[in-house]
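Form 7-S
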Amino acid sequence: MTPPPARRRRTGASGVAPAHNFPRRGAVRRAQAITTYGVGSLIAVDHESFIVSGLDEAEQSWSRDESPRIHERRLARVLGVDYFRLPPASDDTSKDGLRVRRFPLMHNCPECNDLQRHRDFNPPAGRSVCGTCEVDLVPSRFVVACEAGHLDEFPYWQWVHRSTGRGASTTAQCGGKLKMRTSGRTSSLRSILVSCTCGQVPEASMEGSFRRRALKDLGLKCRGSRPWLGASAAADGCGLPLRTLQRGSSAVWQPVLKSALSIPPWSSGRADPLAEHWDTLREYDKREHVEIYLRGVFKGQCPVPLDEVMAFLDAEREEDPDGETAPTFDHHYRALRNKEYERLRSGNDESEHAREEEFVCETPSGDQSILEPLGVTGPMLVKKLREVRALKAFTRLVDAESTTDPKEMPLSERLLRWLPAMEVRGEGVFLRLDEDRLGIWEKTVAVAARVERMRTAHQRMLDQRADDPSRVISSPATARMVLLHTLAHVLIDEWSLDAGYPAAALRERLYAADDMAGVLVYTATSDSAGSLGGLVAQGEPDRLDQALRSAVHRAEWCSSDPLCVETEVSGTGGTNLAACHACVMLPETSCEHNNILLDRALLVGTPDDPHVGFFATMLGH
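Output:
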């Protein structure tokens, strides 16, 4: 995918290469440097291909003026960093950008058919053309990767010489040159032909190179290559099996994104000056010790009053996971969500706070009893919110939403005290389901059976992807989670039709646990659709009642019915039931779980068992 051209607005785009003696190769939006073209990802610019360099170079190249720090203490504590940095903005006068390296290095000339490293074509400086034919070179369409996150060139020489029995340990080459051409007969891999001028082997097609064991059968294993870190990165001899991928495949790079809402007391921004000192301050239990430390660090001029510092420390300790001797990352992240749920329930009135407050959540003025027949309660109008999304790591070949730490590739070779992140300001609507009615519905045999099918399929998928059985993540699939997830999707679809929002501009945030049953739908972009009040207006009880009824009625029918509602398995690995792109699936930017664990039958029921739906009473079943 070629990035869009650079925009004039300073906050809208991020340069793909810095101007420090390097040519500028293109531009991407600032948010894309987190979600699409982050560290370790491949990016196509015109007819060239590059890989985004690691944070070790970013620390040197991202200037503070164009890549400012942002703070969100709750998320920073979970991720073990002090602060975050926005990717550098870019315009025509920018001096900064994202560092990139050419990858893959293997290129093919469509004129002379040579297949070799880019530098061996002797291209003119600053151009990617064959030095002999003067035509644009084509980067290798194929790369190889392992589940540990390493990336390497496709082994063309071993592939074409496989018939000779030369193993991966062979270091002596045949002396010939590789050639690549297409027969033009079909568009399949069979038509891509690789040969060697040594004359010892026949021409070989790329057919079969994508088999799971194709490279393993050649005796090839992962060398631990990390091209985004440059030549200085030592290969660690990974040894895992390699898989062939197309350069543009989504499996080549998936971001591990973690996010948090700014909620009181951190949402006022008054704690930001102490961002790099909180870990030290937490070691002191007594007020006088905190005071001594601050006096020494700030030379008696601490920017935050001592009373507020103590209040911040108390608030932070409240989010510590309960009952865990050695809390894991998941425990800390769950505690973060629990505190958000509590704050969304209790609210934060705008009239009681200063303009700097980033979280305003109020009770609607209308009669909420109108929602009781629907089993919905506690709607809240989130008139102002700020979300920080940080790029924690990335994965290859493994779903980033269900990964374990060993399969996450860090963004730098050495430990850094910051991560790249973006912030979104907008608005939203929060609602909860009635706990009593939900508890009765969850215990229904038919409901439990449907959810168990999805949970089993999802757990099987997680088990297959785990190297260490002791570190397998438990599937989050529960009846309330699937119900809330599907409800959020149909609400987003409804508001995209009724309120004029594009579906990709809205996002869900689920709060599903034994003591939580809520969903926040909020604006997921920082453009003009973000905070104009249109979404908040949908949270008034009368309008919310209409939207819920319309959304659920719309979910009764899908253009793929009866196949969709009667299917026994759907989605990746059978992790969905009655859910498809014609009914409840959303754009990737809107869904927290990559469109898995969805079942609209839990909303509206099935023809054979209409009462399996939570809203069956509303529909007259």
